Structures are given as C-alpha cells and as structure tokens.
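hey can u check if this looks right to u? its 110 residues, i copy pasted from the old doc so theres a chance i mangled smth
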Amino acid sequence: MDGLEELLRELIEFVKDASPVVWAALYKQVYVQAIQGLLWMSAPIIFLLLLLKRKVREWLSEPIEIAIWGWALRLAAFLLVILLLGYAIGRFINPDYYAMKLILTTLRGH
C-alpha cells in the first residue's frame, strides 16, 4: 500500500506543479460538492420541521400504528441529515483527500 500511496502523492505533486489551474479547479469542485451536500441536507430538515409542526398534535390523538409511522419518517429524515452532514463536513475538513479522489475517479473513468 505504501507504493500506491507514494505514487498517488507523486501524481498530486505533478498535477499541482504542472497545472495549478487544474488543481485549483479540483479543489473548488470539492467545495462545490460539500455545498451541494449541505443543500441536499436542507430538504429533509425542512421536511422534519414541517412534519413536527403539523403532525405532532394529530399523531398524539391517533392510534398507535399511525404514530409509529410518523416517528419512523422522522427517524429516516434525521438519519439522512446525519449522512449528508458527514458528506459535506468531510469535504470541508479534508479537501486535499477529495481532490485526490477526484483525480483517481477521473483517471479510472468512473
């Protein structure tokens, strides 16, 4: 694994030195992906807030089966928010890694 890691570091240094414009574009793309993750995260947050605002009183008076579905929807939305938050935070904290990942993904053609 050390040989692959060294090769990757050399590739990154080559891209940084040979074309700072390309490296800057990749770096910016990582931040774009992070912001996209935050924007995608806003949909389940809005859903959660609307659901909580409108349905809590209704579900408290409904049969238990309906209340369970309401809580299941909230849990699913909450888990989606956590997943997308991790996606976005990772890119803000370590953009170099994700820029490298973009290089490798582009080279592999995926």
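The CA atoms of residues 70 and 76 lie 10 Å apart.
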